[in-house]
Write a structure and sequence with these properties.
Radius of gyration of chain B: 18 Å
Oligomer: heterodimer
Distance between the termini of chain A: 46 Å
Radius of gyration of chain A: 21 Å
Largest sheet of chain B: none
Number of helices of chain B: 7
Number of strands of chain A: 0
Number of strands of chain B: 0
Shape of chain B: globular
Order of helices and strands of chain B: HHHHHHH
Helix content of chain B: over 70%
Number of domains of chain A: 2
Largest interface: A-B, 93 and 107 residues
Shape of chain A: globular
Number of domains of chain B: 2
Number of helices of chain A: 9
Order of helices and strands of chain A: HHHHHHHHH
Largest sheet of chain A: none
């Protein structure tokens, strides 16, 4: 029964892949080897699509793999399989935290966790900066320092930074407005 | 916030909205969560969001789903956790199924590539703004500043696993408090 097998494979992925969507990738490669539901080349395409569509990347990949393997029921079952362990684990942790919220040790642990959380988010942000604003591959070829900078992207970033931080009337706009405007600018100016 | 005042439908739709507006993984969700849940609806605080992200980092699964489960559970109990998670994945399932069925070479279309290159620039700026905002409520003393800096360097330059960083920071938080360094 392929649906049951899909559920189980994605349940295991959801249970063991820790640290975000891309952490599911090694599990998916293994799945393609052991199950033969899809090829490694297909998987590369799925990653590209998952990154180019809205939604959490891990969920997008599960849906895509599920669809490729067993159509629409497959996409549903794979996604539900992926998120089931998360939901169970988080509900248990939330209950434990609620019980010990006033505990001094738990409070002290979160005092250390919060700057760590912001540090991790900042590091993830820097990774996007590296990909979006710099063209390090191009620099490696030409060794011209100016070639390391994606000038169009840096200009757009500067304008966005100014608009979202400096201009009072614009600042309050919903983030999706800036995202969609950037998509249009990307197309028009061939980013 | 009164639990009974939030309907499950509202929870589902709000998280579906967050899901459809998230481009590029769990971290890109942060500016959207900030606007939809903290600013518009006051369903969570900055501190809670950071706590959920920290726990979501070191527990298995997709971070976006972990965060949705936490917030849904807080607002409407375990059923709320399930509904919020289903909401956040719903747009993905619909969009990916459509693309997989119709456009197999979606990611190769030049306009799609250009659009996402533009979106990535925007995501940088939005994450930067979120980090500044969270920084103010998390880095409250010198010790917290050291933890922030060390985690940033270890994660970005040395690719240290987030699990190790989260566990170490929690232990440090406890030790620093015991030694009376906290708040100085």
């Amino acid at each position: 029964m392929i649906l049951l097998s899909l559920f189980w494979e994605f349940f295991k992925t959801g249970l063991f892949a820790t640290g975000g969507g891309m952490a599911t990738l090694p599990f998916l490669y293994r799945m393609s080897e052991t199950k033969g539901w899809f090829t490694a080349a297909q998987l590369a395409d799925m990653v590209a699509v998952s990154e180019s569509t809205p939604g959490p990347i891990g969920v997008n990949m599960a849906t895509y793999v599920g669809y490729t393997t067993a159509g629409i029921p497959g996409s549903l079952i794979a996604t539900i399989g992926l998120i089931t362990p998360s939901i169970i684990i988080i509900l248990i942790i939330a209950r434990i935290l609620q019980k010990f919220r006033t505990n001094k040790t738990v409070d002290a642990a979160f005092y250390g966790l919060r700057p760590c959380s912001v540090g991790l988010i900042a590091a993830a942000g820097l990774l996007v900066v590296k990909i979006a604003l710099f063209t390090l591959d191009h620099y490696a070829e030409t060794h011209v320092l100016l070639d390391a900078l994606n000038l169009k992207a840096i200009l757009l970033a500067a304008v966005l930074l100014f608009l979202t931080r400096g201009v009072k009337q614009v600042k309050k706009l919903h983030p999706i407005f800036f995202i969609l405007a950037s998509a249009v600018i990307g197309i028009v100016f061939k980013f | 916030m009164n639990k009974s005042r939030i309907s499950l439908l509202e929870l589902f739709l709000t998280f579906a909205k967050v899901g459809v507006m998230t481009f590029g993984g769990g971290y890109a969700m942060l500016p959207i969560l900030d606007r939809e849940l903290i600013e518009k609806r006051a369903w969570a605080t900055n501190e809670e969001l950071m706590d959920y992200y920290a726990v979501g980092q070191c527990t298995p699964g997709v971070i976006a789903v972990n965060t949705a489960t936490f917030i849904g559970n807080k607002l409407a109990g375990p059923i709320g956790g399930v509904i919020a998670s289903l909401g956040v994945v719903f747009p993905s399932v619909v969009i990916i199924t459509l693309i997989a069925g119709i456009l197999t070479s979606f990611a190769d279309i030049p306009a799609v590539k250009s659009a996402f290159a533009g979106i990535r620039v925007c995501v940088c700026v939005l994450i930067f703004n979120s980090v500044l905002k969270l920084y103010k409520s998390a880095v409250i003393d010198k010790a917290a500043l050291v933890i922030f800096g060390a985690v940033l360097v270890c994660s970005f330059f040395f690719k240290v696993s987030p699990v190790i960083l989260v566990v170490t920071s929690a232990v440090l938080g406890i030790l620093l408090t015991m030694w009376g360094v906290r708040g100085k």
